[in-house]
Amino acid sequence: MQTASPAIAIVTMGCAKNEVDSAHMSDCLLQAGFRVVENPETADAIIVNTCSFIQAATEESIAMIFDMTELHNVARGDAKLVVAGCMPARYGDDLADSLGEANLFVPCSKEDDIVEIMEGIFPDRIREQAVLPKTATPSVYVKISDGCDRFCSYCTIPFIRGRYRSFEEEAIEADVSLAINAGAREIVLIAQDTGRWGLDFAQPSSLAILMENLAGRHPDTWFRVMYLQPEGVTDQLLDVMKTHDNICSYLDIPFQHANERILAAMNRRGSRSDYEALIARVRHLVPGVTLRTTVIAGFPGETEDDFEELCSFLEAAEFDYVGVFPYSREDGTRAAEMPDQIDEDSKMERTQRVRDLADALSEARVAQRVGSHMDVLVLGEEEDGQLVGRGQCQAPDVDGVVYLDSGSIGEIQCVSITDTLLYEMEGEQV
Length: 430
Fold this sequence. Notes:
430 residues, Rossmann fold, pyruvate-formate lyase- activating enzyme, CATH 2.40.50.140, 3 domains, 5-stranded parallel β-sheet, 5-stranded mixed barrel
């Protein structure tokens, strides 16, 4: 007996790269005639797209899975529970043995087969007419590669996502065009390691070439690149960024530390002097560039002097934004087996000290924008009706917003910055 096309809900955990994967699964299901719903309680199947980069992310994903098992439709057996993404990729059969509440496990490598997987769960469904993807938000993530070849000693990504694989430029262009045609005004290019894009092709290309082509084909759209390792910051890329007004003068470079010995233990190249020279070169070639970095506190063997060198580096570099994470000891990584592990209290104390420093540095940098004019992309309204947007100096979700006095969603308007509060800014339309 055939049944109406099932309703599928997708719950996304973790980073923006997972959001892209969930959006892709959603689009595939819609085009295959499935219904995709927001509320898991109304779904016939719930896909939890998990994150497992660090233990805290794994725990959050597990908590969400258990929350889903408590929904009435799941508890009654009326809805199937599918665990997808990083957790099945990382833990494999061990996860199925320990998480019997789930009906099915779909690792990252199988997410492209989500339609066939759902058809296997619902073989008797009525095929409804395909639904086109929903209208895009003003800012859209587009993934340009997957996997990673760096094998940093603390990181699980190569084991979860596999080796580095650049997506073809034609496929990236198709995703970009689809988003722009649906209403996007900003495209955020993401990957585990964006700077390596194109190097693995039979005829190698580069991120600089990709961005120049995209910016030239879509001159009214902002382009932003995230997760750019230090080695990926080339003069060619900086020249493209400086040349095209619609490429955000914004670089997110995860330096992770400044002490050369700690960096070597992380299996990362560089030193404080190397990084300071790179920062000086970036600021010379792209005046007014916004710089963001991320650092890890409490890595095995980090002494108080090493930690103080990290703090000194952050102060001297004057980053606009700094993300800070405590070292997470992950099973299967080389760092997990290293001697001189830092106790949890010390890690959290150091992390908080760096966060306090980062807040102070960012507050001062952001405050310097008062009185300046900048273009702001209007994103939408908060719950209280306050209109918000972002400037090119602000990446999604991490760098705050601009509170606006007027504007239409999707519009890029010139505003005068009148006030700031830590990471947030207030702007009036010029």
